[in-house]
Design a protein that fits this description.
about 40% strand; mainly beta; 39 strands; 5-stranded mixed β-sheet; about 475 residues
Length: about 475
Amino acid sequence: MADLKNVLLKITHLHRANSFCTSAALIFTTLMLMVPAATTVATAQTYTDLFNFDGTDGAYPQGLFAQGQDGNLYGTTSDGGANGTGVVFRVTPGGKQDVVYNFDGVHGSTSFAGLTLGTDGNFYGTTYEGGAHSNGTIFKITPRGKLTTLYSFTYPTDGLPLAAPIQGTDGNFYGTTQQGNAYKITPGGTYTLLGSIPGASAAPLLQAAGGNFYGTTYYGGSNNVGTVFKMTPKGTVTIVYNFDGVHGVSPRAPLIQARNGNFYGTTTGGGHKGEGVLFKLSARGVITVLHTFHGNDGASPSAGLVQATDGNFYGVTAYGGTAGNGVIFRITPSGAYSILYNLDWASGGYVSSTPMQHTDGKLYGVSAGGTYEDGVVYSMDLGLGPFVKTLPTSGKVSKAVGILGEGLTGTSSVSFNGTPATFTIASDTYLKTTVPSGATTGFVTVTTPGGTLKSNQEFRVKP
């Protein structure tokens, strides 16, 4: 069984103290006993402990979960596996897991990042250690487990990546490092160091509707407690917001751009009780604290939010709740906060990774704890129906687009905001199409034998 202290060190990324700036909110000691600031939802939401890691098949899963073209979920662990240096794993929505790749040091080790699905069907990620210079790597891996090291970081010039790169609308991948740098890398491995960001980052970037990237740093800025920054594709960086304590401290999570155009996120500390906040931020940098954590309703969220198909945001906290192991929560765009589930160590807790919504409608994520204390894959059934996702989420006419979904065999039509498109059925979980002439920005719909499925977000048709 894994040592609890080791697990917490892994989950909270406490590495290389000289490059990590922490706050009291990141070290959870006691929960403040207060009048509850949230309601507990006792409806049809169902939490399921899908899979328990035992060390041999990986340990301490973290980072982004990616849905593959085959409908399965792919991720990484920072420890365990055949070499004790982490694995890339695959798990079905039903909970059957297998190891896709065992990291070996030479090709990277200790991945906190998770994976990003590329438009080519391969996955892209980073390792925190290993590679040619022992300072981490950027890699590409096929669903069958063929790994290619695209780049080995060279500390202190760059290196120590905690997050996976994301694919931009230009087809290249963009990311940040704990060293406070941003980079671009092509799918073929041509690497460009874009420059400095205002502090260390533990979160993936977000490419907003306007084409610029947004990210967070967990220290730096005018108050040295973290920032939200904007970066152009060429690497020009400006600070959008400097955290100040009252409005949050040390964000370690990615931002999400909601359908209303605003950005939403979390901070691990700050707020009135020092336990972290949920915030809304306009593109001009006007911040609104939607919820301040008190401990009994959750504490120190280091994971980001997902906007589900019902329009609400869902997330997790690393600590707090009735067992002190965190909560799964829902918050509306206007700030109404509800606890959906109180986590416990036996079935998973101390969650530091952002959940994702699969096209089957459920939330999936990874956590610490579990039967062997090596981590858990969990699902949360919100009672939401299936939908489809497009990859990418924007493009010009004639742009190739992939569609992820369920029950796609027998599909009879695909349309972009009402404009019919030609398509090819690649599998029951994946379609190939192109943006049709005359298409306008709007939702993509797919008519299947089981009914019509709608995309979870609008597809932006670019001029």
